[in-house]
Amino acid sequence: MSITTNRRSFLTVAGAVAGALAVGGIGSANAAAIKKSPNGKPLAGVFPIGWSPCTPDNKLDLDSMVSQQKFLNRGKVAGIAWPQNASAWQTLTSDEWHAGADALLSVKGKAAVVLGVQTVGFDLNKSLEYAKYAGSKGADAIISLTPPGVSDDAIISYFKALGSASNLPMLVQAVGEVSVDTLVALYQAVPTLVAIKDEAGDPLQRAPGLLSRTGGTLEDFSGAGGHTFFAELEEGFLGTCPYVGLSDVLQKCFDLYQAGKKRDAYDVFGRFLAFDSIPRANEYVCIARGVFPEGAIMRVNPPPPDAPRMGRRRPEGPITDAQKAEIKLALDSYVKPFLVA
């Protein structure tokens, strides 16, 4: 047996069904594909992209970072990935990255911590430092976006280096023009790679090829705020990386689906979508639920130059008191029975 096979086997869940109970009862059909971290935490389910909450003077609020991780543990959410795009990773200093990582890792519980290690300019030496730090501090996994504008060989070389630096399970966030062919080659070359968060095209269209060509052993995750998660579950996806605010509701959807209660899962997913349609809901829900204090601000990445708008238009101006009241009313009137945290 090769070293690559041995290392990948180490990351595969031993006794998959028993281990999967920690995230709510994974059905046996998908159990064989589920990996777990060195800490024994299954790397499947809902892994929201954590916020980078700040005080009104734009300082990273470490107490709120801790509160965010405690919230996910109360909600029985599988884990968190931080910092990625929704975390405004491009704005974080090295000191802020380390402090935020330490804050998340200080919280003990079942929610896994997946640390994002890409850096501005994709400075490999700095990313290797982050990856080594993640491994030394007991993180469950690492994640990185694919470097932009480089060859397939360069992408593979980048992730091989990250994998060797930490030896932790790794997720890849595919963006830009990264093809399924590239992802398959990456999976074959990097033994620590366990999942793809696919945002380089339509993940639903790409999933059949990605899953079949990796023998069903690579986990397929999605993003896009979780808006197509139910359809993705039908295609065999084992995870999603939405926003934090209703991640416990999406985790309940995932758990019900994996337990074979698909109609119940569909109903829960409908509540998630209905709430998310409310203007400014995602922006305010963590404050409305008491995770962050009133007045907290969320860091955002600077928009790329000349980038076209994607998805829904970002609201302009401060959120109004009327919008806050509507969000709180919807939570209490329509979503409360489905909340876990």
Characterize the structure shown.
With 341 residues, this protein is α/β, with parallel strands linked by helices. It has a single domain, classed as Aldolase class I (TIM Barrel), CATH 3.20.20. Helix content is 43%, strand content 11%. The strands form 2 sheets. An 8-stranded parallel β-sheet has the order 1-9-8-7-6-5-4-3. Strands 2-10 form a two-stranded antiparallel ribbon. α7 links the parallel β5 and β6. α13 packs across α14. The N terminus is likely disordered.
Gist?
With 341 residues, the protein is an alpha/beta fold. The protein has 14 helices and ten strands. Helix 7 (152-166) packs parallel to helix 8 and helix 8 (180-189) packs parallel to helix 9 (203-213).
List keywords for this structure.
two-stranded antiparallel ribbon; disordered N terminus; 8-stranded parallel sheet; globular; 341 residues; alpha/beta; TIM Barrel
Radius of gyration: 19 Å
Indicate how many domains the architecture comprises: 1
Helix proportion range: 40-55%
Tally the beta strands: 10
Report strand %.
5-15%
Straight-line distance between termini: 44 Å
CATH H level: which superfamily? Aldolase class I
Question: What is the CATH architecture term?
Answer: Alpha-Beta Barrel
Order of helices and strands: HHHEEHEHEHEHEHEHEHEHHHEH
Structural class: alpha/beta
Strand line-up across the major sheet = 1-9-8-7-6-5-4-3
Give the averaged pLDDT, no decimals.
Answer: 89
Low-pLDDT parts are: 1-29, 306-313
Q: Which sheet architecture does the biggest sheet show?
A: 8 strands, parallel
What would the principal axes of the Cα set say about the shape? Answer: globular
CATH level 1 class label? Alpha Beta
CATH topology: TIM Barrel
Q: How many DSSP helices?
A: 14
